[in-house]
Records
---
Amino acid sequence: MKSVNVKKTDLLEKIKENRAMHRAIFEKALKGYRKAVVAELEFMLEEARKGRRIKRQIELIEPMDQTREYDRVVRMLEMSTDDVIELSQQDFAQYVMDDWAWKEHFLSTTLPYTQ
């Protein structure tokens, strides 16, 4: 199957659901990231106060936020005058299955801060 037709309302609902889940993961990861940065900075400050070697870089990976990707698709659908939307296999994978090209990278940047 190369494409599928879906009801716009069903698709919009699914994308909003996926967006909410993405945003919740990102926000949780961002809190964890900030906590890790503060801990690292406090450690660096303590080491400096003790006269030890001063580390000047924080090597933590910032969580990636792709919320705008969802927002763009939602807005496009909201402005569409079609009641039925044709999705390619790739569109279906992204919008319905929430399997984006960047998904693996997103998970790898958020996982360390959400456990």
---
Amino acid sequence: MVAMAQMQQSIAQTKSSSIGERVAALNWTAILSNLDDHGCATTEPLLTPKECTILAESYDSDQLFRSRIVMARHGFGRGEYKYFAYPLPQIVVALRDSLFPALAQVANRWNKALGIEVTYPSTHATYLRRCHADGQSKPTPLLLRYGPGDFNCLHQDIYGENIFPLQVAFLLSEPERDFTGGEFLLTEQRPRMQSRAEVVPLRQGEGVIFPVHHRPVRGASRTYRVNMRHGVSRLRSGCRHTLGIIFHDAA
């Protein structure tokens, strides 16, 4: 394990422009289509193996985080996670800033389809000012760690009145090498229908974009709202780390 000072320096040296260029190069046509059609989309590997390792190893530094949650104490599942403190690592800031504009367009289109009057600005900095003005000033990006037998119950990440409708989870570990099991799960509850479940395979450095709590679905005669929840299945072996990018801050 590298020393903590080296971790912090390595994370800080990741250039925002590099992350922004990678995000801009994503196949956004396919991403937007998958979000509309299936309620989730993957990014292809966006973070390098080195970046994933540095972020995963930073979990052991309490200096970077504002709080630690042990899931079993709250009935959330098994495993634990930590919320980053401000100032966030530069790589986390860059991911928030570069992913937000395209996702804000999706969020605005979805809200319009559902008759929701809330709209989102084109930059994340502007949106954060809205959150902070309303008393939501605690950072929400987080790192999650799972060991053998750990899992995350199906849930929604809602932290206040200002809720950005989409979030992204990046797998930092290598499946089959670092862990087995631990699949990302997404469920969708349509009105008067049984829940639909989806398992999303991820590679190291790849992100999955998905709704925080609901999305629009076009029916035969109208567009209706479907509720979404996400979680992680039981880890069979090893250790699994994930970076969660949530765009609204918490109260």
